[in-house]
From TrEMBL:
Keyword Magnesium appears in the UniProt entry: yes
Species in which this protein is naturally found: Neiella litorisoli
Family: Belongs to the glycosyltransferase 4 family. WecA subfamily.
Binding-site residues, Mg(2+): N158, D223
Reaction it catalyzes: di-trans,octa-cis-undecaprenyl phosphate + UDP-N-acetyl-alpha-D-glucosamine = N-acetyl-alpha-D-glucosaminyl-di-trans,octa-cis-undecaprenyl diphosphate + UMP
Protein name (Swiss-Prot/TrEMBL): Undecaprenyl-phosphate alpha-N-acetylglucosaminyl 1-phosphate transferase
Necessary cofactors: Mg(2+); Mn(2+)
Length: 369
């Protein structure tokens, strides 16, 4: 497939327009089927019932976009789309019936097996992390490492979906970054998949965040959408960093997905330390901490998006300029340590984060007051 700027823009426009149309059809159907998010007294404070149509619409438009552009070549991605269909189905059941943790994990494990066994996508090479040579995994270790990675990223994205626009914008960053690197290396089909996914998310954000003055029906991604995006990102990260012809190193994949992974790791470690159930819902995620520190929702969205962009830009820069992998890995661990101390350490939001929030709010009042 010869990819030109015109073809790329055509793909983005077609997918975005089809997503707008699909949202208009799927939203009333979701309401009729009872796929709505109802507010409660604990974690859900939105106004009224909100249709969980975003994820379904993004999935359908991605499939249609890939069918339109790839034609019969889409067979090369058949197991990815099979796994995606199943994870969306599990997500719809979870949105409707609130599945138990065990049922969700079983469904996600099946999805992992489809990716590993069916798509033959294995995480068998971890890169030269310590400057001692490449770290290779034997087939059994690679199997379990891949299953663990798929489960971790799916749940990381699911956990991050707690505020309007947050997961959608954070998902576009690794998708566009990976798409660029894949395009550079000649992995055109994977690059087009990444760009198609990105363009399908944008119309959802219009409905989810809203535009001043419009009267569009507000929708959420739902578990179907968050798990689908998590699966798509981890599939592209593994497919792009493994095999004979790679688009980027495994450590670059860490930088592209830094925010979801850091949020998952710190929240999980905190729950283990407190002896709380790992999959129990709480208010210790990044957006919760920033909200308690005094940041507005708009400020949180900007802070998280800019942080995600900064990590991804460094990852792409390191990949393009050939920075040593041990250096990139050490820098990632340092950033992760700073993140953990800042968000969950003793110098939490009461001090540094609260100071930043007050400063931003004072500037906003000065400019608009």
């Amino acid at each position: 497939m010869q990819v030109t700027v015109f073809l790329l823009l055509e793909i983005l426009a077609f997918t975005a327009l089809s997503t707008f149309v699909i949202i208009e059809f799927v939203t009333p159907l979701a309401v009729k089927l009872g796929l709505v998010d109802r507010p409660n007294q604990t974690r859900k404070h939105h106004i009224g019932d909100v249709p969980l149509a975003g994820g379904i619409a993004v999935f359908i438009s991605t499939v249609l976009g890939c069918l339109f552009w790839f034609g019969e070549s889409i067979q090369d991605l058949k197991f990815y789309f099979l796994a995606s269909s199943f994870v969306v189905f599990v997500g719809i059941l979870d949105d409707k019936y609130e599945l138990s943790v065990r049922a969700r994990l079983v469904g996600q494990a099946i999805v992992s097996f489809l990716i590993v066994i069916g798509a033959q996508t294995h995480l068998s090479y971890l890169g030269d992390l310590f400057g001692l040579g490449g770290v290779f995994l034997d087939p059994y270790s690679a199997f379990f490492m891949t299953v663990f990675a798929v489960l971790a990223v799916i749940n990381a994205f699911n956990m991050l979906d707690g505020m309007d626009g947050l997961l959608g914008t954070v998902s576009i960053v690794p998708l566009m970054s990976a798409g660029f690197l894949m395009l550079e290396s000649g992995s055109y089909m994977l690059a087009m998949l990444a760009f198609t996914l990105s363009s399908a998310i944008v119309p959802f954000l219009v409905y989810n965040i809203g535009i001043p003055g419009n009267k569009l029906t507000k929708i959420f991604l739902g578990d179907a959408g968050s798990m689908f995006l998590g699966l798509s990102v981890v599939f592209l990260m593994i497919a792009g960093s493994q095999g004979a012809e790679t688009s980027f190193s495994p450590v670059t994949a860490l930088w592209l997905t830094a925010i979801p992974l850091m949020d998952l790791a710190t929240v999980t470690a905190r729950r283990i330390y407190k002896r709380s159930p790992i999959f129990s819902a709480d208010k210790e995620h990044l957006h919760h901490v920033l909200m308690r520190a005094g940041f507005s929702r708009k400020q949180i969205l900007i802070v998280v998006l800019c942080s995600s962009l900064a990590f991804a830009i460094f990852g792409v820069f390191g990949e393009q300029t050939g920075l040593p992998e041990p250096l990139m890995f050490a820098a990632f661990l340092m950033c992760f340590g700073c993140y953990a101390l800042l968000i969950h350490g003793r110098i939490r939001q009461q001090k540094f984060l609260a100071y930043i929030a007050r400063y931003l709010n004072r500037r906003r009042q000065t400019e608009f007051g």
